[in-house]
Amino acid sequence: MAETTSIIEVRKGELHEARVSEEEQVSLADGQARLTVDSFGLTANNITYAVFGDMMSYWQFFPAPGGRDYGVVPVWGFATVAETTVDTLDVGERIYGYFPMGQSLVVEPDRITPASFVDRSAHRADLPAAYNSYVRCVGDPSYEADGEDARMLLQPLFFTAFLIDDFLADADFFAGIQVVATSASSKTGFGTAHLLRKRPGITVIGLTSPSNREFVESLGCYDTVIAYDELESLPAGPTVLIDFAGNQNVVRAVHEHYGDDLKHSAVIGGTHWDADRPEPAPMPGPKQEFFFAPTRIQVRAKDWGMAELQRRLAAEWAAFLPLADESLTVQHVDGLERGIDVYLEVLSGRTSPSVAHVIRP
Fold first, then answer.
1. For the chain, where are the alpha helices, taking DSSP H only?
2. Which residues contact 236 (CB under 8 A, 6 or more apart)?
3. How far apart are the first and last CA of the chain?
4. pLDDT of residue 214
5. CATH no. for 156-297
6. 3-state secondary structure of 304
7. Which partner from 88, 91, 220, 335 sits 20 to 30 angstroms from 173, CA to CA?
8. Is the dihedral of CA 337, 343, 345, 351 positive or negative?
């Protein structure tokens, strides 16, 4: 067994500072298993995890070897059980779930079923359960080996999109007749738009950069696509804003454009994390509210039961996959050093919206 394992860590105060670090690969204790990370997806969603790392506790999932000034960005991916002291978990099993940008992860499987387990590691005990659950692919009837790329790149984002759509519909769109989405080219953004377009009486408007406009229009998810430099052309009427970008200049412009006609303003992500941030000042319209997907999961798990929630998600996911396949090209990258290159490219916003990356560490 190798004495060390490699992991990417970033400086919390300066997300452009990323490095590959080594950490000791310790022997397993009773009740633990070591997973070898085979591949993980890297999208703007992972940048959101980093931007909100402290506020939403994303840095706590995978402690960084560099100490408190550094963090490990969580990713979704697939791994193989390399070693285990748990009788009901087999070496060689395929596992899907939440991983560090690294080569391995030690977990303490609990609540083990043929289809899943939960990591009960002490440092994760108070973190959202949705991120601590792992799928045992051998017991998952929906698992397909040739569907791994789509699943790790898009399904977590589509789950968030599903929950946003459900939340807004459950609230009767706060009496709005249209939804405006920033960062319309983002994968969570167009997943949400795909679902919202099915809602009767709701117009879906996508905001994007001029360079991404053609791609966004090609998706067919939005009734109207407007560039950020054309915000004055936003149509009038009671409106909901869902902000995937985190660009406060754009958010303020939308708030000022609609005033009291803006019925709800939701913060989803931070794809424009490095945009100029003006001094906080009151804005017209409603106060922004952060949408946290795990909270909505808890609501619907209580209302419907987890099995029904998963059934509804699976049906919508199946309907979304053809659009995803048509719209995205997956690029595979080998090694963590090259993984840093991809991370920095995504962080700086240079990645084409039609490209998605899978890293094989």
1. 44-51, 129-132, 148-170, 187-196, 213-219, 248-258, 293-304, 306-327, 336-347
2. 261
3. 17
4. 96
5. 3.40.50.720
6. helix
7. 220
8. positive
Domain with CATH 3.90.180.10 in the chain: 4-143+330-359
Q: What is the pTM for the complete model shown?
A: 0.88
The residue among 273 and 92 whose pLDDT is bigger is 92
Q: Which two tokens stand for residue 80?
A: 């193989």
Q: Are strands 203-208 and 178-181 parallel, antiparallel or unpaired?
A: parallel
Start and end residues for every CATH 3.40.50.720 domain found in the chain: 156-297
What's the confidence (pLDDT) of residue 269?
63
Backbone dihedral angles phi then psi of residue 95, each to the nearest 5 degrees:
-130, 135
Beta bridge pairs of residue 109: 119
Residue 40: beta bridge partners? 77, 359
- At 44, is the pLDDT very low, low, confident or very high (cuts 50, 70, 90)? confident
Residues 224 and 206 sit within 8 Å (Cβ to Cβ): yes
Q: What per-residue confidence (pLDDT) applies to 287? A: 94
What does 80-148 look like in DSSP terms, one character per residue? EEEEES-TTS-TT-EEEEEEESBSEEEE-EES--SSEEEE--GGGTTS-HHHHEEEEGGG-TT--GGGH
Pairing of the two strands 329-334 and 74-84: unpaired
Mean pLDDT lowest among 112-121, 161-170, 231-240, 278-287: 278-287
- Alpha-carbon radius of gyration of the chain: 20
**Residues 6+ away with beta carbon under 8 Å from 126:** none
What tokens were used for 63? 């402690």
Residues 6+ apart with CB under 8 A from 290: 266, 267
Model confidence pLDDT, tens digit, residues 117-148: 999 999 999 998 889 999 999 999 889 999 99
Mark residue 237 as left, alpha or beta (left: phi above 0; alpha: psi -120 to 50; beta: remaining): left
DSSP-assigned beta bridge partners for residue 10: 18, 71
**Predicted pLDDT at 2:** 52
**CATH T-level topology, domain 4-143+330-359:** Quinone Oxidoreductase; Chain A, domain 1 (3.90.180)
